[in-house]
Every structure is written in C-alpha cells, then in structure tokens.
Amino acid sequence: MAGGRCGSRLTALLAAWVVAAASEAGPKQAAMPEEQSLVLPMTASNWTLVMEGEWMLKFYAPWCPSCQQTDSEWETFARNGEILHISVGKVDVIQEPGLSGRFFVTTLPAFFHAKDGIFRRYRGPGIFEDLQNYILEKKWQSVEPLTGWKSPASLTMSGMAGLFSISGKIWHLHNYFTVTLGIPAWCSYVLFVIATLIFGLLMGLILVVISECFYVPFPRHLSEHSEQSQRSEEAHGAEQLQDAEEEKDDSNEEENKDSLVDDEEEKDDFGDEDEAEEQEEDDSPDAGAEEERSDTRDQRSLREAQGEGEPEDTAEAAPEQPPCSAGTQVAEDALRQRKNQHADKEL
Predict the structure, then answer these.
(1) Which residues are catalytic?
(2) What is the pTM of this model?
C-alpha cells in the first residue's frame, strides 16, 4: 500500500513539473520577435537619406489592395538589397502626406529610384525579378530624371509638401470631428469655412500692422511743401500749355495771311493775263482781215493759173497737166503756212 501511494505521488509530481515547464515555455515562444523587416520606413524627418547613395522607394496606403499585393515582393527585394548594393524604403501616404506631395504622388503604389540625389519614376511592375533587373541592367539610365522644379529637393516641391501636409492635417481633423466626436459632416464643413474666414481676417490684420510698422509718414511741413510744389508744377504746366496754344494760333494766323496774299497775287496775275488776251482779241480783227485779203489774192492767182493752163483740145491737155499741178501745190503750201502762223498768233 505504501509503495502504491509513493508511485502515485511521483507521477503527480512529474505531471506537475511537465505542466510548469510547458507554461514557462509558452510565453518565451510568444515573446520571440518576428523576422525583422529590412524595408526602412521614410518620414519627413529622415527622407534626406535618399539624397546619398542608391535607393528604391515605394509609396503605399494600408487600405490599397494593389499595395498589399506587392508587399511580399518588396520585402524580398529589400532582403537582396545588400547583394544589389541598394537601400529600400517605403512611405505611408496616410501618415506622411508631405512626402507624397514632395514626390507629387497621384497613383498607388508608386515607385521611385534615387541615385545620388537624382530621382526617376519607376513605372514597371512591383515584382522582385523586374526590380532586380531594373537595378542590375541599369535600366534607370534610360528614364528621364526629375529635374528642375519637378525634383523633390526643389523649392517648388517643398511648397507642395507643405500644402499636402496641411491638407493631411485637415483630413485627420475632419475624421476626428465626424468619427470620434460624432459630429455631422456638414457641421464639420461649416467649422472649416468659419475657421478659413477668421484666418484670412487675421492674416489681413497682420499685413496691415506690418505695413504700418515699415511705413514712415512724412512730417507735416514737408507734406505741405510737397503739396505747394505740386500745385506750382501744375500751374507751370498749365502756363506751358497756354503758351503752346497761343503759338499754334499765331502760326495759323500767319499761314492764313500768307495764303490770302498768295491768292491776291494769283488773282492779279490772272487779271493781267485776261487783259493781254483782250488786247490780242482787239488786234486780231485787223490781222484776220489782212489774212483774208491775202487768201483771196492767192485764190485769184490759182484760178488764173488754172484758166491759163486749160487746153483747147483734150488730146493736147494730157502732157501739160504736170505744170498745173505743181503750181497748185505751191499755192496750197503757202496757204497752209499762213494758217499756221495765224493759229500761232492766236495762241
């Protein structure tokens, strides 16, 4: 009996020991950390690390299904980062809206390659093999870099980061009002409108105060002197305008006088010409009578010549026609010359 009791006690002790050992081993196994991720989370405070060396960055959101599908591939790529001599990072756009604005991220997931501060957009799939070939084959050299104002390190993108960070804070505040406090969405919008108006009024007041601080008013006597000087300048300008107008009037009067004198001279010249023409017309009747007399004389001479030259018989008249024709031509030429002379005198 005693031996059976001792055996039962030993088995009970062994069972208690096994249970205690199992209970101690359970918490130790639960406390073992998971495999450490080699992907470095990037924030607004440490993002400048990508300005040195070679980096690959992934922009994601926890609610994005496409981002979740590439998480395992991105982890595998990060584990091979030492072999590829590249650092791998990720950016949560919900927690870091400023960085998403600095890189101007509009689609998710978004991948960027950085080499000594020069950034390029990677538009391939987020698969480990494609990422590895992109680095080993240096395909990034054929991609146009983000330079100038598009560079994340530029002043323009810094301002964009500020705007995105402000919008992120407003979004978080809106969620706090609607989700945590249970305020309706339209009430949240009204609060934001009122806050915007108040902020604008305060900024305007600050600008007015700053302008008053830097604005130095002129003394009173200086202001009066400046007003007098302005008045004197205006009066002097008015006098100059009056003088100019008077000079213009004088010049116009002189021109009118000159034009009148020229018109009178032309009239006198025309009058002299008319008198000369009248005298010529008075003299022209005598000259015309003499010319008529001379014409009648020539015509008589022609008739006499023709009468003398007429043959008695028709047979004898044919050889004597040339002398008669020559005489008539001479008379006609003389008449033409006289008519021409008469026309010249009339002109």
Answers:
(1) 64, 67
(2) 0.50
